[in-house]
């Protein structure tokens, strides 16, 4: 059993399990699945002058606890359920990335760029620091991220979430096909 | 029986144990993010290059199960374990924020290869540099809060 759990999980196992997070959180306490609101709660905890961050974040503490749980879950996965094989990528993707001088190294990301050493290179700094900023800015501007809009919002059949998800993809495609190749050349 | 339940609830609320169930839920979610490899920068690249079905399968089947669950909750008027009603709030139908905010988020998603959930899970796997990515995301949220009144919503 443990051997089976250590293998990478196929989409038809992982997807439905993620979908079950929705009724789980609703039934446990009418909580709506979403991660990026935590970034706002953390801002509300810190000294600030924006009205947007003046609310009782403690009432949303469940969400912060959930976030801590994700970190713990990540740690448990690599310690108890580590995959026996290195991560493999679609051959066409590996080829495309190779032409951009990015090597598939068997980890979750190209560590030449996404590492502490990479942070002190121009492209690493742009991809992680500017990229992270856009994730935080864009998620709050749009009112949610992949979990809140793509999973929860679409499950509720909310039209605004569909528009947001189309935006996520417009931005992602624009970055992947037009801007990322330029950044990787730096 | 009633007294036992009341005592139990008092103990739980006194120790702030209500949130323990969310700790375990988060752990469960974190494990799924790692084991399905959706937290991988490479999987995000496969998705945005339309070269693998994996991410579409994960997101699509998650929505299918989520939508069916919500339909059942509404259909049978399911309550929370505390007996409270389960409520849904329609999102405001003003479009610029979803189009512009969504696009900015998408640009960042393809740059970092991780949205907020995977960022946290990556931190847990030992990719400590994602602490910097997360602090940047917090800063992005903070700046949004400062200038939101000047942005079209």
Protein described:
The complex is a heterodimer of chains A (186) and B (153). Chain A has helices at 2-6, 11-29, 37-45, 61-80, 91-99, 116-119, 122-142, 146-155, 159-184. By secondary structure, chain A is an all-alpha fold. Chain A has 2 domains: 1-82, no CATH class; 113-186. By secondary structure, chain B is mostly helical. Chain B has a domain at 92-153. Chain B is 68% helix and 0% strand. Chain B is built from 7 helices and no strands. In chain B, helix 2 (20-35) crosses helix 6 and helix 6 (116-125) packs antiparallel against helix 7. Chain B is globular. The model of chain B has no long low-confidence stretch (mean pLDDT 93). The chains are: A mainly alpha (186), B mainly alpha (153). At the A-B interface, helix 2, helix 3, helix 4, helix 5 and helix 6 of A face helix 2, helix 3, helix 4, helix 5 and helix 6 of B.
- Beta-strand content of chain A: under 5%
Number of helices of chain B: 7
Calculate the terminal CA-CA distance of chain A, rounded to whole Å.
46 Å
- Poorly predicted runs of 5 or more residues of chain B: none
Overall radius of gyration of chain A: 19 Å
Based on CA atoms alone, the radius of gyration of chain B comes out at 20 Å
Number of helices of chain A: 9
Nearest-integer average pLDDT of chain A: 96
Structural class of chain A: mainly alpha
Oligomer: heterodimer
Cα separation of the termini of chain B: 52 Å
Features:
heterodimer, A: 186 residues, mainly alpha, 9 helices, 66% helix, B: mainly alpha, 7 helices, 68% helix
């Amino acid at each position: 059993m443990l051997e089976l759990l250590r293998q990478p999980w196929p989409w038809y196992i992982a997807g439905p399990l993620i979908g079950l997070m929705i009724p789980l959180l609703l039934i446990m306490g009418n909580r709506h699945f979403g991660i990026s609101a935590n970034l706002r709660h953390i801002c509300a905890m810190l000294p600030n002058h924006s009205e947007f961050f003046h609310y009782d974040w403690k009432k949303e503490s469940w969400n912060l606890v959930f976030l801590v749980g994700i970190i713990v879950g990540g740690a448990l996965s690599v310690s108890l359920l580590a995959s026996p094989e290195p991560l493999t990528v679609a051959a066409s993707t590996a080829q495309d990335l190779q032409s951009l001088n990015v090597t598939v190294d068997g980890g979750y990301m190209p560590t030449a760029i996404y590492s502490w050493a990479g942070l002190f290179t121009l492209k690493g700094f742009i991809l992680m620091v500017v990229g992270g900023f856009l994730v935080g800015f864009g998620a709050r501007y749009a009112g949610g991220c992949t979990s809140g809009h793509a999973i929860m919002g679409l499950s509720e059949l909310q039209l605004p979430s569909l528009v947001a998800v189309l935006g996520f993809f417009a931005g992602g495609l624009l970055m992947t096909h037009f801007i990322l190749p330029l950044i990787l050349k730096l | 029986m009633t007294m036992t339940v009341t005592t139990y609830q008092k103990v739980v609320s006194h120790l702030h144990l209500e949130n323990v169930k969310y700790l375990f839920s988060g752990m469960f979610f974190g494990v799924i993010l790692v084991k399905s490899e959706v937290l991988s920068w490479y999987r995000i690249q496969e998705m945005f290059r339309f070269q693998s079905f994996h991410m579409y399968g994960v997101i699509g089947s998650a929505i299918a199960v989520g939508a069916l669950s919500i339909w059942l909750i509404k259909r049978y008027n399911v309550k929370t374990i505390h007996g409270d009603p389960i409520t849904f709030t329609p999102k405001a139908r003003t479009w610029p924020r979803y189009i512009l905010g969504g696009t900015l988020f998408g640009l960042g998603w393809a740059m970092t290869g991780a949205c907020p959930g995977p960022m946290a899970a990556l931190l847990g796997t030992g990719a400590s540099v994602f602490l910097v990515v997360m602090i940047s995301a917090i800063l992005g949220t903070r700046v949004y809060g400062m200038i939101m009144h000047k942005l079209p919503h």
